[in-house]
Amino acid sequence: MRYRLKLDEPLADGVRRIGIGQIERAVGMLASEDRDTGIHEARKCFKRMRALLDMIRPVLKPKVYKRENRRFRDLGRALSGARDVHVMRQTLDKLAEQRDLGAAGEVPSALRVWLDAKRARIVPIDGDAAMRQAQRVLAEAREAFADLPVKGDSFAPLAAGVRTVYAGGRKIMNQAYRRGDDEIFHEWRKHVQRHWRQLQLVRNAWPEAITPRIALASDLSDLIGEDHDLSVLIEFVRQNRAILGARDAVDALIEAAQARQADLRNAAFVRGRRLYALPPRALEEALMAYWETAPEVVKAQADIEPLAQGGKVVNIAR
């Protein structure tokens, strides 16, 4: 199931179709033989579900929104343990490619050994039980989403849902660069990801206008995501520095990670300013206009294309 609303489909039907499709995809991913990839892909499904829920929040009863949002939030958290250690290992390897870690001595090697051992302990103990529980919760979620009570068939509340997430991200970006706090940057990434995914949902309103915005938000999310991965690695190294090696070597690793963070945040600032250039209300009004005119535009294009092949000039304003 494509993660995209259709112009010729009642909105309530589209919401249920997309939701059930993501739930079924997550079930399939959790059954994958490649556990790391399966968990990673399933957690992306949960994030898509939460972005969808945020967009349709205005047409859901508050208790329904809270229940479903909590369900997918908890699913993601339950599967985060082994994945987090795996990401930390990847982050360290990537940093070694980007920065000269010579001053860190044997600390990177010691850290790799420690992370590999930690991951080996997590997977057999916590992984299997968490996967079985996730499958049970997803079965309940599918049943709930099949009967999800979505009120009305107007696009206006959904555009308002997009505006709310966008406005929150715009505000948090300013806070992040004013305070420089790792956790605020992480919160900003969540808003960017939700905005990016909500744009995917409404892309059919005007693909030529929305697709570049999706690409910009996705690129920005990747930058802030790498920044967060580095902040997690830095904190882990600080907490375990006594077992990793000499003080100067540990400090050198931390400084290399912080230097990479500075580069990422500079690049993210440029993209963030572009993404959040529009006032929230202006974005909402633009999406409304795109969606409302889309059926007429699609019909006009269908009329033009067969005739254009014959070299005729067509008046579409008939």
Automatic annotation (TrEMBL):
InterPro entries recorded: CHAD_dom (IPR007899), CHAD_dom_sf (IPR038186)
Classification via Pfam families: CHAD (PF05235)
Positions of the CHAD domain: 8-283
Protein name as annotated: CHAD domain-containing protein
Provenance organism: Dichotomicrobium thermohalophilum
